[in-house]
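Section 5: illustrative case.
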């Protein structure tokens, strides 16, 4: 089995084979590592594209801009307001597909306008075991997944990031704020702001890994179990602040932080949030590529803008 340094060389070789690449860059652990590797492999033939929207906190956008400036990487920021996509606000179970499809179409447009031949995103081997409808859009639009091509796990990406001196090596995992909503609950600018302000408060209070899941007017806080005592010691402050953000009740999830906890509400997802790769794939996806169900592939509609949108 290849060690992480051998995998990094494989990643470099793969990126060089693309000739040029536009990296979907969020400023998170995976996309920062991928962008750095692409810049090493391709120099000016690697560019970064970041989507600006109300589900992407300003702090994350600022960090993405700062990283590209520090490393001399050409950086494009595009408007990608997913709330304008038909059906997105209703938060269907293929919400991530709707968003990713539109986003990657915009990144492809920027890539072509700048003579770039490939688009890449930062999913890794660990993403193969959760519900990831966005990966359907990756396949449909011919977007590359270099970290999976190299066989890199999240832990290996963090270790290599540390060795490379990247500031994100120990950054908390992040997903767009829309992922904090239970499927079927309407997503709005107001609720996204409530979640954003609540999570920022917890980060400012030095909690290392946070999610604030929203259930109507109820906030369900997910933090690392070892930080429960820290939260309870500040519970009155947190409660008052959350109420000022618009929450009526504030709760602590006793299982603590975990990725994809909203997927527990999906009947076809197991208690451990893991799809089995043995399910029969639809023509839109392959079992080896995605951890998704046949009906999720076949039923996913193409995103459309509202009639009054440009």
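Designed sequence:
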């Amino acid at each position: 089995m290849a060690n992480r340094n051998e995998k990094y060389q494989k990643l470099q070789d793969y990126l060089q084979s693309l000739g040029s690449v536009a990296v979907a860059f969020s400023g998170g652990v995976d996309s920062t590592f991928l962008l750095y590797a692409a810049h090493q492999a391709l120099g000016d033939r690697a560019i970064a594209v970041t989507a600006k929207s109300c589900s992407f906190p300003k702090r994350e956008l600022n960090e993405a801009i700062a990283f590209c400036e520090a490393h001399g990487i050409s950086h494009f920021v595009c408007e990608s307001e997913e709330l304008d996509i038909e059906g997105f606000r209703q938060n269907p179970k293929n919400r991530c597909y709707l968003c990713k499809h539109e986003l990657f179409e915009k990144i492809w447009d920027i890539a072509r306008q700048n003579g770039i031949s490939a688009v890449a995103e930062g999913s890794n081997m660990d993403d193969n075991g959760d519900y990831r409808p966005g990966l359907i859009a990756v396949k449909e639009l011919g977007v590359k997944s270099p970290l999976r091509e190299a066989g890199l796990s999240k832990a290996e990406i963090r270790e290599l990031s540390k060795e490379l001196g990247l500031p994100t090596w120990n950054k908390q995992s992040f997903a767009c704020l829309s992922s904090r909503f239970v499927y079927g609950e309407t997503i709005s600018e107001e609720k996204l702001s409530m979640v954003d302000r609540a999570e920022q408060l917890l980060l400012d209070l030095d909690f290392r890994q946070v999610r604030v899941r929203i259930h109507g007017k109820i906030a369900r806080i997910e933090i690392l179990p070892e930080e429960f005592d820290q939260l309870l010691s500040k519970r009155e402050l947190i409660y008052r602040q959350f109420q000022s953000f618009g929450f009526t009740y504030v709760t602590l999830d006793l299982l603590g932080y975990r990725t994809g906890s909203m997927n527990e509400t999906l009947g076809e997802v197991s208690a451990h949030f893991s799809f089995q790769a043995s399910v029969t794939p639809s023509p839109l996806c392959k079992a080896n590529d995605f951890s998704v169900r046949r009906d999720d592939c076949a039923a996913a509609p193409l995103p459309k803008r509202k009639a009054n949108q440009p």
